[in-house]
Amino acid sequence: xKDVKICVGTNCSFKGSLDILEYLENDEHLKxxxxxxxxxxxxxxxxxxxxxxxxxxxxxxxxxxxxxxxxKIGEIIE
Length: 78
Description:
There is one protein chain. The chain is of the alpha+beta class. Helix content is 40%, strand content 23%. A four-stranded mixed beta sheet has the order 2-1-3-4, covered by helices on one side. A hairpin with a 2-residue loop joins strand 3 and strand 4.
């Protein structure tokens, strides 16, 4: 199981992190392959110009989109 942590702080939530979280929570295929959790912030990374922020494994994805996150998850679970 690989860790996926999504920032749900104000900036990230406003920029779409909750949509990414909702998708991953409801994806039955991924539920058994990832440990999904949330965070209030990843330090100073979560500023407006980097939001939303998602950590997949040890890699931080800034300006995260669902496509970017799914692509990175696909790389680490293979």
